[in-house]
Amino acid sequence: MAQLLLVLLVVLTAIYITLSLWSRQVRKAKLRKAWEAGDREFGDDRESYVRRGLEAYDDSFRRKLILLVYVVPVAVIAYIIYAVNYS
Fold it and tell me: Could you tell me if 27 and 57 are in contact, meaning their C-beta atoms sit under 8 angstroms apart?
C-alpha cells in the first residue's frame, strides 16, 4: 500500500510540475502580447512588465487551482475505497 502511495505521489508531482510550468509559459506569452498591444499596467519596460505580471499571477487563485492535481485523485481514491469496503 505504501509503495502504491509513493508511486501516486511521484506521478501527481510530475503532473503538477508539468502543468505549473505550462500554465506559467502561457501566462508569460499572454503578458508579452498584452505589452505589445499597448497595455502598460505593470510598467513601461517589457521585461519588468512580464516580471510584475508573473508576480501577480503567482498570487492568483488560478495558480492555486493547480493544487487540485493532488486533491482530486486522492479524494476519488478515498471515496472508491470507502464505497467498496463500507457499502
Answer: yes
Q: How far apart are CA 30 and CA 4, in angstroms?
A: 39
Q: pTM of the prediction?
A: 0.80
In a domain, 43, yes or no: yes
CA-nearest of 23, 32, 33 to 57 is: 23
| Spatial contact of 70 and 12, defined as CB atoms under 8 Å apart | yes
- Please give the tally of structural domains in the chain: 1
Provide the Cα torsion 52, 53, 56, 60; round to 10°: -160
Q: What is the pLDDT of residues 29-72, one digit of tens each?
A: 999 999 888 877 777 788 988 999 999 999 999 889 999 999 99
Structural domain span for residue 81: 16-86
